[in-house]
Amino acid sequence: MTRYFTREEAEALLPEISGVLRKIQEGRERMRASEEELEILQVQAMGNGHHLFERIMRLQSEIAAAVQALRAAIEELLEFGCELKDPDTGLIDFLSLRDGREVYLCWRLGEERIRFWHDLEGGFAGRQLL
What is the pLDDT of residues 76-93, one digit of tens each? Predict the structure, then answer.
């Protein structure tokens, strides 16, 4: 069943959602750093880099764990009923009704409250003040 949020209902979730979004952002940053390091080590290992094997295996394991943690955090976020639009900026949409039609209430991590909405197809660029 489709859930529609009022502004008040969505705003009540923001403190919890903010915490989950920060977990997602931190996890993505750790994963990117490990991937960059792994890429460098793999290039180095193409020469006489057998001594790098253990570090490469450890990084691959860290990346796999980070992916699992990210999936879990995203699932946790989706349980609130919102939609993650951009994890890097913390952009979230909440399905709502406005004048009898479906729209999104649009919020980004760091904003104090939900002040914008947009059409389902409009996206961030189509945000309008409530």
Answer: 999 999 999 999 999 999
Answer yes or no: is pLDDT of 37 > 70: yes
Averaged confidence pLDDT in the chain? 90
Whole-angstrom CA distances from 5 to 39, 63, 91, 114 are 43, 35, 16, 12
pTM comes to 0.82
